Every structure is written in C-alpha cells, then in structure tokens.
Amino acid sequence: MLISDKWKDYELIDCSGGERLERWGNVILIRPDPQVIWKTPRDDPRWKTAHAVYTRSSTGGGSWQVRGSIADVWRVRYGGLAFNIKTTGFKHTGLFPEQAVNWDRTAALIKKSKHPVRVLNLFAYTGGATIAALKAGAEVVHVDAAKGMVAWARENAEASGLKDRPVRWLVDDCMKFVERELRRGNRYDIIIMDPPSYGRGPGGEVWKLEDEIYSFAESCAGLLSDDPVMSLINSYTTGLSPSVMSYILGAVIAEKRGGVVESDELGLPVTSSGMVLPCGASAVWRKD
User: Fold this and answer.
1) At a CB cut-off of 8 Å and minimum separation 6, what does 247 contact?
2) Radius of gyration of the chain from its Cα atoms, rounded to whole angstroms
3) Span 26-39, pLDDT tens digits
4) What is the chain's percent helix, strand, coil content, to nearest 5?
5) 0.85 cut: is pTM over it?
6) What is the rounded CA–CA span in Å between residue 189 and residue 106?
7) 64 with 52: CB under 8 angstroms?
8) Contact of 103 with 138, CB cutoff 8 Å
C-alpha cells in the first residue's frame, strides 16, 4: 500500500462506525466513510468537540451540522502546494489527501525528465495533480466537466503562487475532449485520469466506469507523445482493483511501448490506532 504520511496540515485522527475524525489545518471535521465498517471505541475527545459533522439524510444527500466557529474557506498546505478547503454539500472538502503520494510521484518524474513535460489531467477536480505538476515545471491541460471545480482549481493554483504557470483550464466532457484531441493530433507526455464511478454527461449520457474505462484508457494511450513519461489511473470504485487497472495499462500501453506498470492501494495513517485506512487505488505506467 502507498501511504500518504508526509502531511502536516491534514491528519486522520480516528475512524470508527462509518465515520472519519479528521484535522484539516486547525479545523476538526467528522465525515462519513463507507470503508469504515469497524466499531472501535471513540476515545479521542475530539469526537465530541469537532467543529462540524456531516450527517446523511434518509432521503439522500446530507448536510453539515456546525458546532463551532468555522470559516467558509480555509487553507491547508502540502509542501509548497496550497489548497482552499470548504465544507461542500456532498460531504467532500475539495481535496483527497491520500493522493499526495501520486502528486509526489508525478513531480519526481517531471523533474527527472530530460525534456519539457506536457501533462493532461482528466476529471481533474480541484487540481491537486495539476498544481503538483505545475510546481514541478510542467505545462498542464486541466479538464473537468464541472465549472465550479475548475474555478476552485484555479483558486488553488493562485494560492500556491502558480497562476502565471503554463496551464489551460477547460470545462469540458473528458471523453469528448479526448476524441477531439486525437483528431487534432495533440500529444501529451503524462496523462492522469481520475474518473468517477458513475455519472451523466451534459447530454444525458451515462458513464459507468467498469463499462467505459478500457476503451477510454485505450483512447488516452493514443494521446501519448513519442517520448512519454507516465500514464496514471485513479479509482475509488470497489470493483476496479489495482490489478485490474494494471492489466488495462499493460494492454493499452506497455504491450506497445514497453516500460513498467505498477499498481497499489492508497492509504492514510490513522493516528489513534497506528494502522492505515485504505482510500482507493492507483495504477501507473511509466517509461522506465
């Protein structure tokens, strides 16, 4: 398992009974997590004094119950990167801290490259990977279908002092964008994708990850440059294991280009227990 254990501004304090107790900077939050099926004792007093708790509704969705003083937006840092955090209506905060291991891996490969690196970040959300790549010196094309998420990503880039770096911020359907890029002949040295398990396109098109991921990864492989660096797939879908994603990258890239394919679960260390909470998975193809 790849563990994101270099955080100072984020801490997974405890997890029990379907919930996480987390510290985001100086703010303590309680959020649902379906992976947390154990019911260990909640000995940490912050379970009772958290600034806000997200409660699911029986009719779907949920809401935050604010217990203490909490800003609408506050900031956390990871190394030289800065992120604006918010309590959104769908339980998320705008950041997946377990992805820090992938940010570090991407940045290291960009810095190691002997040529300038162009990155395509698909389903790019609030831009964690985009900002890490910009900080490492790459040019980035950032694509997400949600206008609000792209705006949030731009805010994060500015907070990190990177607003003048070479980046295109695009609000677009990722599958259609890839099809157009193939026709245009545009190519990228690194391709990162973090597709949703399920969703609908602007025209009502249904996206189900298990049905679409192979053909989509195959299309993305056609966008790799003549001297590519890396292709990465993230997944939070239970049925898409690391080894399945590894096989896909092996079939669509490694069989033709060689290189190395690696995959693993991602995890966050839990302070109270010393154990690790699994938080999704990633598979990576790299040139060497």
Assistant:
1) none
2) 19
3) 999 999 999 999 99
4) 30, 35, 40
5) yes
6) 11
7) yes
8) no
Q: What is the pLDDT of residues 80-102, one digit of tens each?
A: 999 999 998 888 999 999 999 99
CA dist 86 and 231 (Å) reads 30
- Measured between alpha carbons, how far is residue 91 from residues 25, 56, 87, 207, 214 in Å? 17, 9, 7, 22, 29
Give, in order, the Cα–Cα distances in Å from 117 to each of 109, 149, 255, 282. 9, 24, 23, 21
Judge residue 203's burial from the number of C-beta atoms within 10 Å of its C-beta, 0-12 exposed, 13-18 middle, 19 or more buried.
exposed
Rounded to whole angstroms, the Cα distance separating 209 from 222 reads 19
Block residue for tokens 């002092």: 161
Beta strands in the chain (DSSP E): 2-3, 10-16, 19-24, 27-32, 52-56, 62-66, 74-78, 81-85, 118-122, 139-144, 167-171, 190-193, 198-200, 206-208, 230-235, 260-269, 276-286
For 14, 265, 276, the CA distances from 271, given in Å and listed in that order, are 6, 19, 9
Sheet holding 10-16, edge to edge: 10-16, 19-24, 27-32, 52-56, 62-66
The DSSP H or E segment spanning 224 is none
Percent of the chain residues topping a pLDDT of 70: 96
Q: Closest Cα partner for 230 from 288, 169, 182? A: 288
Strand partners, 245: none
Q: How far apart are CA 31 and CA 12, in angstroms?
A: 11
Name which of 191, 267, 201 is nearest 236 in CA terms.
267
